[in-house]
Design a protein that fits this description.
The structure is a single chain. The chain is mainly α and 209 residues long. The chain has one domain. The protein contains 8 helices and 2 strands. It has a two-stranded antiparallel sheet with strand order 1-2. The longest helix is centred in the middle third of the chain and has 25 residues. About 8% of the residues have low confidence.
Length: 209
Amino acid sequence: MNISQRMDRREAIKWMLAATATMSALQGRSFAAHRPVAGYGTDPKLLEFYQPGDLWPLTFTEHQRRTVAALCDVIIPADDKSPSPSQLHVPDFIDEWISAPYPGHRVDKKVVLDGLIWLDAESKKRFQRQFFELPEAQQHPICEDICYLPKAKPGFERAASFFATVRHLTASGFYTTVEGMKDIQYVGNVALTKFDGPPPEVLAYLKLT
C-alpha cells in the first residue's frame, strides 16, 4: 500500500458522510452537537460561533501541531485539485477532537499523543531529525512501515494503529471542508432550482423504463 498516492475517493466519501454526523465546518466552528451526554450535561449549540479552544482547552503544543500538520500532508498531499490538509486547518480539527472530554475522544488522545512521540523517536533514529523537519523523501519510508496495520512489521503495530487513527481524522476533517468536497465532486446539500429526474440511462439500467 503506497500512501504517497491520493486516497481512494469512494473510501473518502464513506468517511466524509460518517464524519458529517459528528462535526460542523472547520474555520473556527466546533464540531459538537447540542444533545445530552451522560456525565457532561449538554454540548454547545451547533449554530453558535466558537473559536478554537472556547469549548475546552486544546492539547497540542506547537511542536506537536507541526508534526501533525506534516503527517496530514503526507496522508493527503496537495495537488492541482485541492490544497493540503494543513492549509485547510485539519490539524486544528484533530486538536479539538482529541481534546474533547468524552471517553472515545480520550482514547484517541492517548493514541495520537503516544504516536507522535514514537514518530519523532523513529525519525531521529533513522535520520537524526524531527519528523516535521524531514523532507518528503525521508518522511515517506517511515509512514510506509506503519500505513497498513495487517502488514505492519513486528513491533510497529501500535504505531500502525496511531497512523490509522490520524488517517481517519485527516480524511474526516479534509473531506468535510468546501475544498475537500469539491475535490471528490460531492454536490450534496446544494439547493436545486429544478430537478428533471434520473437520467434516462440510469432508468434503463434499473429497468424502470
